[in-house]
Write a structure and sequence with these properties.
11 helices, 283 residues
Length: 283
């Protein structure tokens, strides 16, 4: 065995070990949450409101609030992010302005979520007068997810070979028709991957909703986009570190974390199924 082949085998072995370590850590975390929280899960826990100072009852209002925020922020981030990526990738070229936009997008992705929360409170809650509401929280979370949507959509569009663009234009199609009929359908399965990642980030954020929408406890479900909501991340924080009987609420915290993980998992599986169907359609 020559030295090059030996080095290659050693590198592959290290990569396998590192990969197994990552998977093991993931399963260890999931197993710990399931072990600690599965005993709390029941129909009453999933369909009732908290009671007795958060020490009993369920998390139904927090589940509904989280779903509202996921949908609301997706409505904000997905169209704006996808259209922005189409512009920078297909229309704007590679000039200095586009490079500046991409640098700013990358910088925006690195801003801590609590800064987004403070900005959302200042702009949406106070300046625009939305108050602590689903609208303010969705707009803030949408801004948080926007850089990720833009960058992943750009990469999905760049992965489409230029031969499809030139071929479409040579057949007489306009630039808009080429993007709409050729590029987007082919790139959409990979675009969905970015959307899944953004949903995963949105669903677990606490700081932005703390300043813009989250409530400690609400006796009823929201009736409009101008109402506050309970949300699973903030509810998890509250019952894990607040109150007078932390030992009583700790199992509920693990149960809440397990429900949040399951919700994200269901969304990811559904999106992955849709992606595979689209890939088969365009194969």
């Amino acid at each position: 065995m020559n030295s090059h082949l030996l080095k290659q085998n050693i590198a592959f072995a290290i990569f396998r070990i590192l990969g197994l370590m990552v998977v093991s850590i993931l399963f260890w975390i999931l197993g710990f949450i399931i072990y600690q929280g599965a005993g709390v899960i029941s129909w009453e826990f999933l369909t009732s409101a908290p009671s007795n100072g958060m020490t009993s009852g369920g998390i139904f209002p927090a589940i509904v609030g989280t779903l509202y925020l996921i949908v609301g922020s997706s409505v904000v981030a997905f169209p704006v992010g996808i259209l922005s990526a189409i512009y920078t990738s297909e229309y704007a070229g590679n000039g200095n302005i586009v490079k500046f936009i991409r640098i700013m997008t990358n910088n925006l992705a690195g801003i801590p979520s609590i800064v987004f929360g403070l900005f959302g409170m200042s702009l949406f809650v106070n300046t625009l007068g939305f108050g602590d509401s689903i609208l303010a929280g969705s707009l803030t979370l949408g801004m948080l997810a926007l850089p990720l949507v833009i960058r992943t959509t750009e990469e999905a569009l760049k992965a489409i070979p230029d031969t499809f663009r030139t071929g479409s234009l040579a057949l007489g199609a306009s630039k808009l028709q080429t993007v709409h009929r050729i590029i987007l359908p082919m790139a959409f399965p990979n675009i969905i991957t970015g959307l899944i990642l953004s949903i995963g980030r949105i669903s677990g954020e606490t700081a932005p909703i703390l300043f813009t929408v989250a409530a400690y406890f609400l006796p009823q479900l929201p009736h409009s986009i101008y109402d506050q909501v309970m949300a699973l991340p903030y509810h998890l924080y509250v019952i894990a570190v607040s109150g007078t009987d932390l030992e009583a609420t700790r199992p509920m915290a693990y149960g809440t974390a397990l429900v949040l993980i399951v919700i994200v998992l269901i969304i990811n599986i559904s999106a992955s199924y849709l992606r595979k169907k689209l890939q088969k359609r365009h194969a």
